[in-house]
């Protein structure tokens, strides 16, 4: 079976990547719309990029209103700003939200109609050049063909897609992730780990996505605790940033599965941050999924060096699940109760969440396919 593999055209990574990026950015246009949030402006991450733009003579406008998960109205204001200022390319600086907003703004500069017209469709017309500068090691949005935008009229989180949404340039500079606080490092790091594990154990995994997924898993396992305990550890931050990029490339060319399918409803109903919701589900979802592909999970155990001689595949897979439990414990991932969710409210919503999870299509990519009842059981188990 043949496979297509998509990746950003240019990736600049490592120490000094932002400075290095100036020469490439200069080729992309003369006036950029920088899409970001207020925190990125206040902590100086935006000025690290604008200093480089000043040096190479590129002009820019700053749109720093992406202070929540992006909505259609945030995108519309961005389009207006882009047009009024005669911008000719875009730079997204931040976590997943500003980068997702940038992608949607770019798409609606060259595609007709309203952003909500594209739910469930592939966005076709090429965007102006998109530059992604991630400041968390998590979403992998810098490498993916997806953007998630909320439709504020219908209260729906739209998953929009199209290869044209893959940035032309991804700049992976761990210096910009150094200010992420421990709880953000933990949640985004587990999000990236989930991308890689799900990609590797998905029904639609392919040889090249496997390579990126396994490499990502190794980097994240070896460095997440270090970066959590010491945010100033540049080497650990750099490895995590590369791991998150690799994990993004992996699932962009494979898919996420049960965990992401089940975490979106928790995010939508209880406003649990995306990475945290994944972390809460990680162990119980794997307890369900390992039987479907023990050799795949065992391979992950071998990759991270926890496989012991004479273990069967299923024993190795279970060893992996307990290792994931340990890492979540070590980086203080709370459970639903500790996060402040009411038990009764959670249980009342299990039926709806199970339906929504299944309808998203992601659970069907798990090799051992879950029924609605399996999903409901997992929701019950994560309460403890
Ligand atoms: Fe994710």
UniProtKB/TrEMBL annotation:
Ranges where the Fe-containing alcohol dehydrogenase-like C-terminal domain occurs = 185-382
Domain Alcohol dehydrogenase iron-type/glycerol dehydrogenase GldA: start-end pairs = 8-173
Q: Look up the domain of life of the source.
A: Bacteria
Which Gene3D superfamilies does the UniProt entry name for this protein? 3.40.50.1970, Dehydroquinate synthase-like - alpha domain (1.20.1090.10)
For whether the record's keyword set contains NAD, the answer is: yes
Q: Which Pfam families match?
A: ADH_Fe_C, Fe-ADH
**Signal peptide extent:** none
Keywords of the record: NAD, Oxidoreductase
Q: Belongs to which family?
A: Belongs to the iron-containing alcohol dehydrogenase family.
PANTHER family per record? ALCOHOL DEHYDROGENASE, ALCOHOL DEHYDROGENASE 4
Protein name as it appears in the record: Iron-containing alcohol dehydrogenase
List the source organism.
Answer: Clostridium ganghwense
Ranked from the top, the taxonomy reads: Bacteria, Bacillati, Bacillota, Clostridia, Eubacteriales
């Amino acid at each position: 079976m043949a496979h297509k593999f998509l990746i950003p055209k240019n990736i600049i990574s490592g120490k000094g990547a932002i400075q290095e990026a100036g020469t490439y950015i200069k080729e992309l246009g003369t006036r950029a719309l920088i899409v970001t949030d207020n925190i990125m402006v206040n902590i100086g991450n935006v000025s690290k990029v604008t200093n480089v733009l000043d040096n190479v003579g590129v002009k820019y406008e700053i749109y720093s209103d992406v202070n929540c998960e992006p909505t259609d109205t945030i995108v519309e204001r961005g389009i207006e700003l882009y047009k009024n200022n005669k911008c000719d390319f875009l730079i997204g600086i931040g976590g997943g939200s500003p980068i997702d907003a940038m992608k949607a703004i770019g798409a609606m500069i060259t595609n007709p109609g309203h952003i909500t017209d594209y739910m469930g469709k592939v966005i076709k017309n090429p965007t102006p050049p998109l530059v992604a500068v991630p400041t968390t090691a998590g979403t992998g949005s810098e490498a993916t063909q997806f953007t998630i935008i909320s439709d504020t009229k219908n209260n729906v989180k739209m998953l929009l897609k199209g290869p044209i949404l893959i940035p032309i340039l991804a700049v992976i500079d761990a210096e910009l992730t150094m200010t992420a606080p421990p709880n953000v490092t933990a949640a985004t790091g587990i999000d990236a780990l989930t991308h890689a594990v799900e990609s590797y154990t998905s029904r639609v995994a392919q040889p090249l996505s496997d390579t990126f997924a396994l490499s990502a898993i190794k980097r994240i396992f070896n460095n997440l605790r270090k970066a959590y305990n010491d945010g100033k550890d540049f080497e650990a931050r750099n490895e995590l940033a590369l791991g998150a990029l690799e994990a993004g490339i992996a699932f962009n060319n494979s898919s996420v599965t049960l965990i992401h399918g089940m975490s979106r409803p928790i995010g939508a109903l209880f406003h649990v941050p995306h990475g945290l919701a994944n972390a809460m589900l990680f162990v119980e979802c794997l307890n369900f999924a390992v039987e479907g592909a023990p050799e795949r999970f065992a391979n992950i155990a071998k990759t991270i060096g926890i496989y012991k001689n004479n273990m069967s595949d299923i024993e190795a897979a279970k060893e992996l699940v307990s290792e994931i439990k340990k890492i979540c414990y070590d980086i203080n991932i709370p459970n639903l109760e500790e996060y402040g969710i009411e038990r009764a409210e959670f249980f009342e919503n299990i039926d709806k969440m199970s339906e929504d999870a299944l309808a998203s299509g992601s659970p069907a990519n798990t090799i051992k396919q879950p029924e609605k009842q399996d999903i409901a059981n997992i929701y019950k188990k994560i309460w403890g």
